[in-house]
Amino acid sequence: MAGHSKWANIKRQKAVVDAKRGKTFTQVSRAIIVAARSGVPDPALNFQLRTAIDKAKAAGIPNENIERAIAKGGGNFGGDNTSLEEIRYEGYGSGGVAILIEALTDNRNRTAADLRVAFSKNGGNLGETGCVSWMFEQKGVCVVQNVVDEEQLLEASLEADAESYEMTEDEVVEVFTQVANLENLSQTLKAKGFQVTDVELRWIPSNIVDVTEPDQARSLLKLIDTLEGLDDVQNVTANFDMAEQLMAASMT
User: Is residue 145 located within the same domain as residue 122?
Assistant: First the structure.
């Protein structure tokens, strides 16, 4: 399953050279609201909500803000009738790079217009539904840190019906599974004593575009930054890879 972590690695590298991510609060709060609305507003009974709360706590969001978001999602926060819907948009960046955008919005026309402007100003095109999604497959991912015995992790992963795993850096492993099996995988790994630090759904590209030209690298990174800067955008995934040195140079 080599290559599954390429985009995740790019996201981590971007975080190192680009520290201006100020959207975490809005993103995580919206994720909590939608999770609470799509199931019961009780984290003990709602895996999606529990995962969103864990991400909020990891981001340092205060408990009162988390509780307010749960209340909004559960319809228990008076006067807030905002209806958020999950929409996936698709498009192309410089050089034909495929891009998936996951959004939570209360106005899909506004979101589509904002995305169209972002693409057109940064060498890309917003496409029709289905134009690039066929190049991606959604998987469940558990990120496990401080792995000292890879054999034990493999045994636990197989027991939990995982599909594969990848070592991403020293003692950090990403374990992949079918979406419907993610909660079982997470619970099994934790029960076996492994330190699961993140649980998420991730779009995995079936092919990777290697970016080596500085101009294309700058264009793509500017596009990704612009898309991620939009309030309605929750997550951006693309199918390109580039060297860390090129990324750092392209963002200066």
Answer: no
Instruction: Split the chain (252 residues) into runs of 10 and give each run's mean pLDDT.
Output: 61 57 70 82 86 84 87 66 81 95 91 97 94 94 91 93 87 92 94 91 91 92 91 90 84 68
**For position 93, which CATH number holds?**
3.30.70.980
Q: Judge whether 5 lies within some domain.
A: no
Q: Are 142 and 184 part of one and the same domain? A: yes
Residue 245 domain boundaries = 86-134+208-250
Q: How far apart are CA 153 and CA 198, in angstroms?
A: 16
CA distance 69 to 193: 31
CA 165 to chain CA centroid, Å, is 18
Domain count within the chain: 2
Q: How far apart are CA 100 and CA 76, in angstroms?
A: 33
Query: Which amino acid would we find at residue 18?
Result: D
Predicted local confidence at residue 2, as pLDDT: 43
C-alpha dist (Å) from residue 244 to 97, 210, 227, 235, 241: 18, 12, 21, 21, 9
- 3-class secondary structure for the chain? CCCCCHHHHHHHHHHHHCCCCCCHHHHHHHHHHHHHHHCCCCCCCCHHHHHHHHHHHHCCCCHHHHHHHHHHHCCCCCCCCCCCEEEEEEEECHHHCEEEEEEEECCHHHHHHHHHHHHHCCCCEECCCCCCHHHEEEEEEEEEECCCCHHHHHHHHHHCCCCEEEEEECCEEEEEECHHHHHHHHHHHHHCCCEEEEEEEEEEECCCEECCCHHHHHHHHHHHHHHHCCCCEEEEEECEECCHHHHHHHCC
Name the residue with tokens 């969103």.
Answer: 52
